[in-house]
Fold this sequence. Notes:
four-stranded mixed sheet; 29% helix
Amino acid sequence: MQIYRITGGRALCGRIRPAAAKNSVLPLLAATLLCSEPCRLRGVPRLADVDTSLRLLRAVGAEAAWQGGDILTKPTALLCGDIPPQLAGAMRSSVFYLAPLLLRCGRVTLPLPGGCRLGPRPVDIHLSGLAAMGARVEARAACVVLTRTAPLRGADITLRLPSVGATLTLMMAACGAVGTTVLRGAACEPEIADVAAFLNAAGAQIHGAGTPVLVVRGGRALRGAAHIPLPDRIAAATYAAAAATAGGQVTVEGCRPKHLAPFLQHLRAAGCAVETAPDSFTVLREPARRLRGGQELCTAAWPGFATDTAPLAAAVLLTADAPSRIYDALFENRFACAEGFAAMGARVGAKGRLLWLGGGGALHGAAVTAPDLRGGAALMVAALAARGTTQLTDPGCIARGYADLCADLRDLGAACAPEPC
């Protein structure tokens, strides 16, 4: 058990490069099960969820191992479709194994997936789409069981909302289905196009990834492929938020600013100077300059304001000169971090999906608990602007999305270190 100690009051300075995107790497690992030959993912961060994914791959019969900073996977002829409950319960991304195992094994049992406690995240869109392609779906008390007695068939499917997870699941299923699948109302996040690029390199025919209409010509045997996942836009936003709260100048390299354009616009509205280049951006805030509030933010599907950046935006606005509000349209418990903000002296209130930020106050160190991955990161960012030392307990969930956020912030000049409890 660890705690993180963060002492505020230090301006940040330096350059940093985000690792490969967690939200690409996890579905990519599942997608390697569709391939008949070895696959290599390059430059993968050592995240807790990545470790869980490797254990899941091995549990269903695939080979999966680190080779330096790469992961090499290889399906075997002995794949099974029973996902162990302890692995399914450890992360939401276990749902990405539905389609590959259904295609390879003809049957898959998925215990209810876990992950951060952000509120209900139903898998009905995944299941209804797979049913339209010919799968038999049986919902039980603690799991879902999918079977097929014939190859899946292409279908014309309209998603009731642009679910990233469902788009990825049905895109993978369509690669192994007979005929053409059209997904309408598909999610457009950059990670969709990233997974599609990997599958196309392996021999799939996917068109329109990153647009609302995605077309997959299925039935093609997939080989292996090597792929470099795209940079993590949420990690990039975290470093940007840290520069805004602590003050100073931070350049984030090796990323795509257009992938977090709404968040960078939020920082500009708060009074930060933000300069962008094709593959980097710089955030500058004079430590003595007060941030501007008065913002009304609402999360939305791509290309809107990303839900994962909402707690980070809240951390930036805690001490602003005017009240702000943030509404999360996707998750009803996104702002569990509000309790920690309040313990640090912020004027803040959360009611359902809405977070109210009073601004105008000064933060002080406090004992807080990380409620979830992004909320925990936001508490660390807020602590950079606090007077004194903040002790963050239960930080294990943060390791699900950042290999070592303490070290990243320390490299930029923050006083941040893990200690044993």
